Amino acid sequence: MGRPLIGVANSYSEVIPGHIHLRSIAEQVKFGVYQAGGVPLEFNVIGVCDGIAMNHAGMNYSLVSRENIADGVEIMAQGHAFDALVLIANCDKIVPGMVMAAARLDIPVVVLSGGPMLAGDHRGRKVSLVNVFEGVGAYFSGKMTAEELSELEECACPTCGSCAGLFTANSMSCLTEVLGLSLPGDATIPAPYSARLALSRRAGARSVEVARQGLGARQFITERSLHNALALDAALGCSTNTVLHLTAIAHEAGVDLPLAHINEVAGRTPHLVKLAPSGPNHMEDLHRAGGIMAVCRRLHEGGLIDGSVLTVSGLTLGEQCASAEVKEDDIIRPLADPHSSTGGLAVLFGNLAAKGAVVKEAAVLPTMLCHRGPAQVFDDEAAAMTAIEAGGVKPGSVVVIRYVGPKGGPGMPEMLSPTSALAGAGLDESVALITDGRFSGASRGASIGHVAPEATDGGLIALVKDGDLILIDIPARSLILEVSEDELSQRRAAWQCPERKLTGVLGRYVASVSGADTGAVLRG
């Protein structure tokens, strides 16, 4: 009983393909804890896979699960007085939920991901989950046969691990590594590699040392490290969901992180890496090129991150990335030759998004960075999908999907199906999509989400009508509904929020969730 008690929070389940190997990961963690003189005590947390929850009521529970995960880890850690935690996470809301718990508890932690999936091979082309979703759009538009779509589906996700591109799960693992909560290589070592097992054992051993040093999570999650995470986010062009999750993590750590900071950091940080869905490469390629620490070395040499922050490895971030090597310049571009001089994410403001909206600028075609078109308005995702599949969405339009925010969804369902269907039909070259919901990290195109205030709160998005002109200017960070104030006043006077009755976890969630601009956190 004199040894440190290390809680091993494992998100393993038989439900999520990305988690199917986490029992093996946990065993190696426990070996490492034993070897370092600690006592590991494993417990499980829940997880929702957004890919499986797509297109049915399950998507309303995905973001909600983030809060449940954070609560569950807090309850287990406090209820059993663990000296430290190893948080084994993979996929969607599990990584941010566990990091939120770490920030809230402020006890020693080491975060360990299950690693990314390897890309699939379809007729000589590297593919991943997003290609299947876009294949659905291609099928409905007659560009792909059912047989070809089935063939693509069979080979797109060939191994265990989080989906192979820079989607939300891998984005959050990358940011967790630069926050200093995980060991070097954690974000990019592919899930099937034996190096992942060796890393797991080191993570277990390291948790005992961090416990003995008494280094709580807030020693690592600071204003400086969060700005480092924003810089890495900009350099990689991560999922728009990182905005939601970093804001929530900052809230748990007691750090103010306004959305305007994202534009400030992105404005001075070049976009160095393009991975799927923005480019042809995948996480395995970034790993081969040197991984996250190689990207950090580029940024550190350019004075774009603070190398003095601590990491759980025992080194500062600067010391840690100094030993990294950029092995492929075409994957991790030099600072002098970036894909873009500014970062991959942007926050837009304007009358249609008074509190902000988020777009993955790195995944927008150059011709769509500025767009003005008539609105086609839908009050739920299903109606939008029906219109897309039936060819009812016209080139040049702006699709608006509303009443799908944190309260309206509820749970802010992601819009991967409509964005993929538009891309698969070739409409991403001429159609924008705006929503108070969110997007998958696999989404691409002029997909603008997290519009705040949301429709359910009476945000201006609730007043948009078919045919209204919407002006999108991503370089100017602007989102404008071109309707007169007099007309908007008349519409607001006539507007009523749709009524519905919610019970159980969704009812409790809606009663206390904040807006997307503050991370959709729960207010006590």
Number of helices: 18
Q: Give the overall silhouette.
A: globular
Mean of the pLDDT scores?
95
Q: How many β-strand stretches? A: 14
Strand content: 5-15%
Q: What proportion of the residues is helical, as a percent range? A: 25-40%
Task: Give unreliable regions as ranges.
Answer: none
- The radius of gyration over CA amounts to 22 Å
First-residue to last-residue Cα separation: 36 Å
In terms of quaternary structure, what is this?
single chain
> In this structure, how is the largest beta sheet organized?
8 strands, mixed
Strand arrangement across the biggest beta sheet: 7-8-12-11-10-9-13-14
Structural class: alpha/beta
What's this entry about, in short?
The chain is of the alpha/beta class and 524 residues long. Helices cover 38% and strands 13% of the residues. The radius of gyration is 22 Å and the shape is globular.
Question: Secondary-structure blueprint of this entry?
Answer:
Layout: E1 5-10, H1 22-35, E2 39-44, H2 50-53, H3 62-79, E3 84-89, H4 94-105, E4 109-113, E5 120-122, E6 125-127, H5 129-140, H6 146-155, H7 168-178, H8 194-213, H9 223-236, H10 241-253, H11 260-268, H12 283-289, H13 291-301, H14 317-322, E7 346-350, E8 353-359, E9 370-378, H15 381-389, E10 398-401, H16 416-424, E11 432-435, E12 447-449, E13 469-473, E14 478-481, H17 485-494, H18 504-512
Parallel strand pairs: 1-2, 1-3, 3-4, 9-10, 10-11, 11-12
Antiparallel strand pairs: 5-6, 7-8, 8-12, 9-13, 13-14
Helix pairs in contact: 1-8, 3-4, 4-7, 4-10, 5-6, 5-16, 7-9, 9-11, 15-16
